[in-house]
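The records we work with from here on pair a chain with its fold. These numbers are not coordinates but entries in a learned vocabulary of local backbone shapes. To see the layout at work, look at the sequence and tokens printed below.
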Amino acid sequence: CKEMWSAYGRAGLAHLGNNTNNRLEASWGSLKDILNPEMGVDECIETLLFLETAAEMEYASKFNVVGSRLYHDCDEQLSKVAAVVSPHAFQLIRNEYDLLAQNM
């Protein structure tokens, strides 16, 4: 159990850019940058709700595009192809496209 909580035991684990022991404290630091001590409680709550709504809308916009499939890691040409072919056909085309791009 000690290995799981010690620094050397976690050295090989992915930390996604946040290697602090207390992730909640890191989040509080971000909130402290946004909220001011002079703000009233109602203003703080309004700001937090706005930020939550904006984050939800941004997240949803990445995945909820009606009538199309999104592939965020491809260029404009492949995106146009993805809109008119099946996912299986797109993957076959993409494999060929990637091979061509590597040989250029």
